[in-house]
Amino acid sequence: ADALASTHLGRELLRLREGWRRMPADARPRRLLAVALRHMRRRAGDPRLAARHARRAAQSLSRLPTADCLPSADIGRSRAMLLDIAALLDAHADYFSRRPGSPPHAQ
């Protein structure tokens, strides 16, 4: 289950970054996602804090005025990806916080 969650998390992050790259450079959602990704990267050792940053970014995206935004479908997809990332990080925090090379408890 953890390996599947890891694959799913990687795909969601990749999709989020690809969407971020397609946004116009001066778009507010792009700046907001850049900050969120940076904070999540800094908190990679603590998945619950990284999840908190993902949830905050999703909440901030929902508050953006529609005049400043990209099409609402793009914002909705970004929010869904951020919330999915947060849920995966929270649900599998023990797995994601392990140091590389440390064996799982079952071994």
TrEMBL record:
Superkingdom: Bacteria
Protein name: FUSC family protein
